[in-house]
Amino acid sequence: MKLPQLEPLKLTTANPGQVAEYHFQIKLAQLTGTNGPRDLFSAYTVDFFEKYAAAFATTIDQEIVIGYDGSRYHQSISVSAREYLRRMGISVKELDGPVTVPEFMFTCHQLNLPGCFFGRSHSPQQYVGLKCVINGEIALDLLRKNGAEIDRPKNVPIKTLFGFLPRTLAPIIEVAITENKMIHPQKMGAREKIATKDMREAFFASLKKVTPLEKIEGNYIIDCRHSMAGEVWELVKSESKAEITLHNKKLDPTAPDRDPREIWDTLIEKYAPMAQAVFDHDADADRTFLVKTPGKGRERILMNQEKAFATGLLAEAEMRKADAYVLVQERINLILLSSLATLTETVYATAQGEPPFFLGVLELLTKKQEIERISGADYTDIFFGREHPICMKSPYQQALWMMYWFTKNTDLPPFPETNLLKTQITMLTLNYPQRLEKVLQSSEALLEYFKKNFEIRYYSKIDGQNLIVIDKKGNTIVTSIRPSGTGRYSKVITEVGLGEATEKERIAILKKVNASIAKIIG
Hints:
Elements: E1 5-8, E2 17-19, E3 24-26, E4 38-40, H1 48-60, E5 64-68, H2 72-87, E6 92-95, H3 101-111, E7 115-118, E8 127-135, H4 136-145, E9 162-164, H5 171-175, E10 191-194, H6 196-209, E11 219-223, H7 229-238, E12 243-247, H8 264-271, E13 277-281, E14 288-292, H9 305-319, E15 327-329, H10 334-339, E16 346-349, H11 354-367, E17 373-376, E18 379-383, H12 395-408, E19 418-426, H13 432-441, H14 443-453, E20 455-460, E21 465-470, E22 476-483, E23 489-497, H15 503-521
Parallel strand pairs: 1-16, 5-6, 5-7, 6-10, 11-12, 11-13, 15-16
Antiparallel strand pairs: 2-3, 4-8, 7-8, 8-9, 13-14, 17-18, 19-23, 20-21, 21-22, 22-23
Helix pairs in contact: 1-2, 9-12
């Protein structure tokens, strides 16, 4: 099988250094994580998030939308940040209840404003965080303030393109974090409440326009993981012919197990005997996981989540064959690359995560202004200036496309046999910049190892280190080596397939490769 050609999008790099094409000097943010600042509560002073939100608002010089994920802690921070901004003279629009991340992104788009979303994402209960939302216009402005030279696309409404603040644009905001003086009471910033219920219904209306909701049939289970996703799924249920059962649909701000990946074995035990397809969300519902496919028993359990993401993409592609697809991949993996082989000759590679993907879309639109739609990985159907223009993982959309697949099919598409191994390299005393530096310091030694043992087909340092190699027996191996955005470790994710090796041999290859990488990095 011939895999699509990978073309890295240079603006998305997470690694420090010069991006010559844009004269952009990448500097590592010290306080900003994957989508904004997020860490253990003990890492922050009591007013850190208020000062960060203030630095964000003053740097972009705009009114701000505020929202939160439902936890009492983040509700408290959102209230104090709101009043802190108002005492500085910054006006605020505030959702009057908790929402999921895709709903908040949609709110920012509807109001055409940047936003601050307070939530811990999929992190454990003791974490606190803030996700900053910007549009393409703000991103270009921040790129230029950081020294980049990039032209504004003339024929693309980039104000409708929304995404999270990339880590590489955060240094200029971190520099602006300071003590702030109050303004005269008569000049206090305005506060406007936004009805969460109305915005949720508008979000659902837009979702219906880009999914085959009326054609979905069958029985499905959604585990909402105690998030606000249950509210959205209740709207879906009200207009769907499918039988959708919701588990853990009530918001529980103190639920400790809100990331399904941390309790995967528990989920498998729970759902293995059931006949329905089972979907699972993480804490702020910006991901959809497919736990099992229709049919009873463990043989229907889905161990590799890349199959779930690819299924949604292929289901959408089957329905929309007339549309051209330009695909942006957030993490290189063999299953997705092979599944895209019939759809496209080129896959545009970005660093992993929503903010690099956002910058990748912006860069792609700058180079190819005729593009109207981009799909890729577990992002589906990104429209510009149309019905559902969110540059963001859309978990509801992804789940609905997979349900549509299972309306017609009893199993997943015929993906190649692959095996995957994830290895964590513990780095308890290192912050993100230090973890990344340690991964990059091993570049020469890693390349020497791979050149000695494999034929290198692709090598990129846009996000840690990424390689596609072929061994002497024709097996294709994909390796991603990168620091965790918030955890005190670095990740080695290796996948092998498309060759003659048996499953036992593939597993042996994975163990040897990951052990060698871990030894080199140290």
